[in-house]
Amino acid sequence: MIKLAPSILSADFSMLKNNIEIIDEAGASMVHLDVMDGSFVPNISFGPVVIKSLRKITKKAFDVHLMIDEPTRYIDDFCNAGADIITVHAEACTHLHRTIQQIKSKNVKAAVALNPATPLNVLDYVLEDLDMVLIMSVNPGFGGQSFIPNSLDKIKSLRKQITDKGLTIDIQVDGGINTSNVRTVIEAGANIIVAGSAVFKGDIASQVKGFNAIFEEIGE
């Protein structure tokens, strides 16, 4: 099943409750929450206190993407705030395996994100422990960037590895995805699509329904 995870980083923060309610009612599968620390990426967003507050608005899965240095320091806080999935960056973890195990010990799904220049082989000894891999198709830190085309080869290679190993792991892709290019991303092997500007810059409900219509068509 192909799922849409709208990134609230592109939402109107003065109407965040309203925006989340709209994507919920329009049929988004989960809510993607980008946490940025101003160190690992050149921007700052929000932390567990905000996520805990937002947890009251919707029952959709909270897909928490930690773009922060040494995330192990805060994993328990984000789990307790209501995260259903926590994604850490391989580039930000001194002990990646230990960090994954910490997430799973809280009965939360564990995922690892890879920046555009990070090779897939960093997952060689942890892939079996993961519920999801996030392929960044832009350099993280800001919304509204253009999709990096060679991300498609990376997605294809990862999907082949997962299939060859007989694993059940989601592939999420984040960065520059819209209704014009999402088909190629799905055809490459992705099944969870993160979209920010393509959802929130316009008629939010219509944008969500537009993505879902494409997903249904591909799934037929």
From TrEMBL:
Its EC number is 5.1.3.1. Pathway: Carbohydrate degradation. Its cofactor is Fe(2+); Zn(2+); Co(2+); a divalent metal cation. One of its GO terms (biological process) is pentose-phosphate shunt. SUPFAM superfamilies: Ribulose-phoshate binding barrel. Signal peptide: none annotated. Keywords: Carbohydrate metabolism, Cobalt, Isomerase, Manganese, Metal-binding, Zinc. A divalent metal cation binds at H32, D34, H65, D174. It catalyses: D-ribulose 5-phosphate = D-xylulose 5-phosphate. InterPro entries: Aldolase_TIM, Ribul_P_3_epim, Ribul_P_3_epim-like, RibuloseP-bd_barrel. The active site is at D34, D174. Binds 1 divalent metal cation per subunit. Gene3D superfamilies: Aldolase class I (3.20.20.70). Substrate binds at S7, H65, G141, F142, G143, G144, D174, G175, G176, G196, S197. GO terms for molecular function: D-ribulose-phosphate 3-epimerase activity; metal ion binding. PROSITE patterns: RIBUL_P_3_EPIMER_1 (PS01085), RIBUL_P_3_EPIMER_2 (PS01086). The keyword Zinc applies. GO terms for cellular component: cytoplasm. Belongs to the ribulose-phosphate 3-epimerase family. Catalyzes the reversible epimerization of D-ribulose 5-phosphate to D-xylulose 5-phosphate. NCBIfam families: PRK05581.1-4, rpe. This is Ribulose-phosphate 3-epimerase. It comes from Natranaerovirga hydrolytica. The gene is rpe.
